[in-house]
Amino acid sequence: MKIVKLDETSKQNILSGLLKRDPNQYDSYAKTVQEIVDRVKEEGDKAVFAYTREFDKAEVNETNIRVTKEEIEEAVKSVDPKLLEVMEKSMNNIRLFHEKQRQYSWFDSKPDGTILGQKITALESAGVYVPGGKAAYPSSVLMNIIPAMVAGVGRIVMVTPPGKDGKVNPVTLTAAHLAGATEVYKVGGAQAIAALAFGTESIPRVNKIVGPGNIFVALAKKAVYGHASIDSIAGPSEILVLADESANPRFVAADLLSQAEHDELASAILVTTSMELAEKVSKEARLQASKLSRSEIINKSLDNYGCILVADNMKDAVSAVNEIAPEHLEIVTKNPFEDMTRIHNAGAIFIGEYSSEPLGDYYAGPNHVLPTNGTARFFSALSVDDFIKKSSIIYYSKEALADVYKEIDFFAQAEQLTAHANSVKIRFEEDEIQE
């Protein structure tokens, strides 16, 4: 990994490099995605079946596009019992964490005859996109479905591309079943997102679409936003480790590689106050990478988007972290909890040398669907909040409105909205005549 002295130039170079990975920068794909979305909106099932045949080489139709109970039972039986046991424990941790995020309706009644409040309502439906292919990511299935379940969403639909045999990856299907998906459909790519947003003859539309995917999926979510809500337009994975001379270079290198193996576009950055640590981590990263199964991907990721920034002091290091706003942030310093209080922008924060990033990916409980490409400056992790709506409740008695209607009238007149003013005044016309 290249070692760079942290200054304004090197920091800006890092930021501009990371921005190139943003799905919003890939305009060359946007036209193709829009064509797919428009065709699914217009043709429904016909387009979905055709695209599945073209892109996934699988034959689906109205009789087999929805996964059956028999297919689910077959999938569950085929999964390693040890994996099932670990998934159950992970699910329990995820559920317990997200249950603490629940919000409840509240009402504030006052003696003056007013009642104000907020009504919490779960979304009626949500769609979860899960990538297909040879790899299976049951952890992402759990992370997307369980918050919706905890929120109280009644209909949770999973879509995922089938293999050439027309089947869904059994581990993915098992995770969906255990987490509580109510329906699973064999469709992927931009066409799946469009089907969820607009509905087809076989796939009823949903209110919100969440879940990771490739550039076509990301841009399709962007294209349908407004017809359905979305979680975010996620980019490649990121990790940033903030460390000082107390950190173990072997641990730090291993954690950086844990994200670099995701994708050639993944970003792995170390920000440290120790040149000695920087040099040891750089050597250790190459040594460990050479022994790992995805070494080719890791090396390309480190060459293109890996970097070690050496700061003069912790204040400058923390400032750089806040500007980069990483998806995953590990703090491995002498005073990690103190340093954590100065962090304003990060998707998830892992504190101490034994809180490695994969702990959050698989097991601890907090959601691993996190803001990327600097959007941690204004976005949060996927949560129960993503699957609820908040309605304001307003009640005024006649007496309560009588005390304030003239002020409302004055305010409305100031905006030249006379119908607004009339709406409150008309209720007291007879009272004013009698006076």
TrEMBL record:
Q: Organism's domain of life?
A: Bacteria
UniProt keyword DNA damage, yes or no: no
PROSITE patterns, per database record? HISOL_DEHYDROGENASE
Output one GO BP term.
L-histidine biosynthetic process
Pathway involvement? Amino-acid biosynthesis; L-histidine biosynthesis; L-histidine from 5-phospho-alpha-D-ribose 1-diphosphate: step 9/9
Question: Where does this protein hold NAD(+)?
Answer: 129, 191, 214
Instruction: State the needed cofactors, names only.
Output: Zn(2+)
Active site: which residues?
327-328
Q: What class of enzyme is it?
A: oxidoreductase
Chain residues that bind substrate: 237, 259, 262, 328, 361, 415, 420
Which function does this protein serve? Catalyzes the sequential NAD-dependent oxidations of L-histidinol to L-histidinaldehyde and then to L-histidine.
What is the official name of this protein in its record? Histidinol dehydrogenase
